[in-house]
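Quick entry, no commentary yet.
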Amino acid sequence: AAAAAAAGRCGRDPCGALCPLLTYLGVGYADYAVLAHVLPQPALHGSPWCPFHAAAFNLIVLLLLACHARAVLADPGVVPLPDTAIDFSDLRTPSQQSQEDWTVCDRCEAYRPPRAHHCRICHRCVRRMDHHCPWINNCVGELNQKYFIQFLFYAGVASLYAAGLVLAAWLGPVGRSPAGMAAGGDVANNRVQTAHCIILLLESLFFGAFVTVVFYDQV
C-alpha cells in the first residue's frame, strides 16, 4: 500500500520522481569514487585504516539509503477521509468535539486536527505537515519526519566523510612524498583520479551545505 501510494505521488509530481533518482545516483557515485579512486591512493591505501574507512563509509551510505527509503514509503500522517463527502459527523468523536482547534478542509471535505495542512501535491491533509519534499517525493509530517531528519544527518556525515578522505588523499604525507610520486600515486599526475576527486569534493561540499541548512531547520 505504501509503495502504491508513493507511485501515485510520482505520477502527480514529475520533480518528485526525478529528485529521488538524483539522490540515489549521487550517493552511488560518491560510494564508487571513494572506493575506486580515493582509498586506493598511496596516502590512504598503505594505511591500516583503509579497510575501516571503506567499511565505515559504506555503513553510513547504507543507513542513509535505509532512512531515505523509509521517509519515501512511510505514511507521513495522512488524515483519513470520511465515509461520505458531505456528512462530516462520522469523523468527529466526542473527544474531538471538545477540540476547538479542529478545522474543516474544504478540499478533502474532512475534519483535520491542529497543525494539519492540505498538501496541494498529494491532495490530502497531513498531520503536523512541515512541507512537501521533492527529494523524498513525499510530505514531511508527523509519522515520517524522524526518518527525514535521520536521512539528512547521514547525508551530512557522508558528505563530510567523503570530503575529508579526498583532502587526506591529496595532503597525506605518502601522496606528497617522492616515493609516492614515483609509484604514480600523486593524484596530480593521474587525470582520472584527479577528475573524480574534484567532482566528489564539489558534490560533498554542495550537498553537505544543503543538507546542513535543511537539518538545522528541521531540528
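second:
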Amino acid sequence: MGAAVCFGCAAIAFGPAAALLLLTVAAEPLRIIVLVAGAFFWLLSLLAASLLRFVSVQLSGREDAAPLLPGAAAAVLLQELGRFACFKLLKKADEGLATLSEDGRSPISLRQMAYVSGLSFGIISGAFSMVNILADSAGPGTVGIHGDSPYYFITSAFLTMALVLLHTFWGIIFFDACERRRAGGLGLVVGGHLLASGLTFLNPWYEASLGPIFILTLCTGLCAFSTAGGSFSNVLKCLSCKQEPEGRVVLYSAL
C-alpha cells in the first residue's frame, strides 16, 4: 500500500511536468541547457534563503524563534531575484546566439527560454518540497492514525503539481515583463508567489488552501497564455486539427 501511495502521489505531483519536459524540452539541446541553468539559479536562491535563516537563528539564539512568515516571504523574494538573474543571463546568451547565427536570429526565442526556465524552477522547487513526503509515504505507517488528516499525501501532491505549473506560468509573465519593462507583470508574479506561499500556512485546513491555489493557477495560466500571444481562435484551430492551405503563387507562361 505504501508503494502505491508513493508512486501515485509522485505521478500526480510530477506527471504534468514530466509530460511537458518530454514533449517540449527533451528533444532540443538548447532547451535542456536553459533547463539546467534555471534549476541552478533556483538552487542559488535556496542557498541564499538557507544562509539567511541560519544567520537569523544564530542571532536569536533559538531555532524556534525564527519567524516562519517573514522567512517564507524572504525565500519568495530571493527566488524572484534568482529568476531575474536568470533572465539577464539568458538575455545575454540570446544576443550572443543571434550574433553567431548566419541569419542574425537566435535559434531559441526569449519566450521559449522563459517557458523552459519557468518549468525548471517548478520542477526543482517541487522536487525539494516533495521528496521527503514521498519517502515518508512509502511507509511504514498509516497517515491519520493519531487523528491527523488522512489526506496529507494526496493534498501535498496536488499542491506540488500546482506549484510546478505556477512557476512555469510565472516564468513566462516575468520574462515578458522584464523585456517590456512592465512593473505590473512583475508585481503580478511576486504578489502571486507570496499569496501562494502564504496560503500554505492554512494547512491542514486543506479546503482553504488547495482551492484558492488552484484558482490562482488557472488565472495565472490564462494570463501567461495571453502574454505568450495565445488567443481563443488559436485554441479552436488547434482542437480542430485542420491545417490551413499554404499560399502558393503559380506562374503561367504566355507561350
